[in-house]
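Reviewers of the previous submission asked for a worked example of the structure-prediction workflow described in the proposal, so we include one complete record here. The input consisted solely of the amino acid sequence. No template or homolog information was supplied to the procedure at any stage.
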Amino acid sequence: NGNGGALLYHAPSKRLIVVHAHSNDPFDLHALSSLQNHYEGKAPWHVYGLSAQVPTRFTLEDFSLQPGRLRLVYSGTQKERLFLYRLGPASVLLEQKELDQWVTSELANDKVKVTGTMLNEEGCLGRGHLQSGLPFLRTQALLKGWRDLEHNKLLMVCLAAPSPDLQDVEAICRDLTTR
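From that input alone, the workflow returned the following structure tokens.
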């Protein structure tokens, strides 16, 4: 019969891939040549029209898929957390509140206290921290929110870490797209 499969291991990414096929036709190992490991320190994520390149040190911890609201939360090494949001339609949402108010209120639901924001032509930049019962355990947060005019969506990225890197936030924002 055509049952077959393979175990593939990629040492740099520490990924083990299990391929198991059931078919009435003989299993062709050449079919495995089309597999791609997207390891470049980033993992591609595609969820309901939202596409992101997330650093491989992060794993999906939580998500919320609601009409007009998509939220992905990742945990990383050294108490890092990454939050990705897509809200829409932006034209309706921005009639109710300004962009910085949406960023602040959405992140508050994830216990991120925004302590300062700045609106500019690109959107909203801000700082904050993850709220903790113990002030000395606070984790700093950097955030960015913007409006995707073409798709009428609000997009937000927040990186919380002991020392978040603005270049990491900017790289994630560059790779975050929607349709």
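The longest strand covers residues 139-148. We consider this example representative of the routine output the project will generate in years two and three.
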